[in-house]
């Protein structure tokens, strides 16, 4: 008989399902109950659970996080997802791509029984296969469940240079994922930049919607191809699209059409605007160059939104004067990752390979400064901080000899690295954004307004702010407005309508809902509580 686990932080909802669903008719022999993710994990590790019925919205850990944990543990459990937010019905298909069914709360028992019957059949089929070859099936399921994680780790390692970018090393790494390098000799990378939500979302809701956006990318951009969609350490979503052997006619036009379909679908169903930055076809061992160029294009773009931007139309990469020198973007990426020694080695290797002249050293002098300025600006620092009042040799002095140039280059990179490390948790950009929010609490600020004020791409600013503060930018603006509202409620006799208007809220009801979202009380009840406490 099939064993089912119900996971929901609403105890009465769990009890209602236990008593209201006809479990035996669905082929279920045992039903377990859990009221939070930690309790569910204990049961999943202790009992052989076939089907999990799980609420998405739970405190501490969401249902999606519980599902991801179960996948990491290689637990062969089928999942039915529940949520009370009807506006998330458009995410149903995206979630089903991960092997789940989706129902809205309050659950209609007949609907759940229908979905449950289908899910039970899938679980029973697994049991039959297991009976035919229990040991084989155990390891086959273990492998199949971990294979997507291994593939994602491969691409992360390749794009972060943890795998040597040569044919032999890549082929060996792919063999560990059961993939023949000949199947993906050439690829096109698509960087998906989420630029704006078109409706208010909480931080948890944004996480769920970002998950749905990534799953939709798998469905639409990859279609039936054997590509992959990953999220890198900077928060970018990257689609790796295989290029057909020989570059089939129309493949580029097909990808552009799929990108447009994807942008339209995300705006219609997920209430967000995003752009697709499309790289040129490249050999897999050269994918890192395309990846860096896409990052640069997204960072520099401040004028086009909800667009398809192809690098062949807008070449944004900048290189050293000599084609044999390392790419400016590669050196910038190494420095930004804190890999100063690697950047110095790469620069030194090229110096030894070239027949250098005063002219080439002078060109490299200016190019290296561009690298440093580029990295400092991405992290929100002024280039003036690099000098710190010290005297630096100019291009003429540094290019006097290779020895002088190497000494200067080492000093510049060391100073920049030290600056980035010492200010890693206090970016001037984030500080300036916070100051602007404080000064303009009476206005209806958007992410685009703040990005324009600090001369950054909105999507890049959002990732930078979240990485350094742990908060979504819109949530920070809301909290600061409500903090100011609470101060005014406590220290002035201004009416609640006046306070709402002074903070840029023309709709009193909306202001009250937002205040209650932060403080758990309406503004009126909050003020009454304060007066009672005096």
From TrEMBL:
Pfam families: HTH_18, Response_reg
SMART domains registered for this protein in UniProt: HTH_ARAC (SM00342), REC (SM00448)
Keyword DNA-binding annotated: yes
Recorded GO MF terms: DNA-binding transcription factor activity; sequence-specific DNA binding
Xref: InterPro entries: CheY-like_superfamily (IPR011006), Homeodomain-like_sf (IPR009057), HTH_AraC (IPR018060), Sig_transdc_resp-reg_receiver (IPR001789), Tscrpt_reg_AraC-type_HTH (IPR020449)
GO biological process, one term: phosphorelay signal transduction system
Domain HTH araC/xylS-type: 431-529
Domain called Response regulatory: residue spans: 3-120
Keyword line: DNA-binding, Phosphoprotein, Transcription, Transcription regulation
Modified residues (4-aspartylphosphate): 55
PANTHER family per the UniProt record, alphabetical: ARAC-FAMILY TRANSCRIPTIONAL REGULATOR (PTHR43280), HTH-TYPE TRANSCRIPTIONAL REGULATOR EXSA (PTHR43280:SF2)
Name of protein: Helix-turn-helix domain-containing protein
Organism per entry: Cohnella fermenti
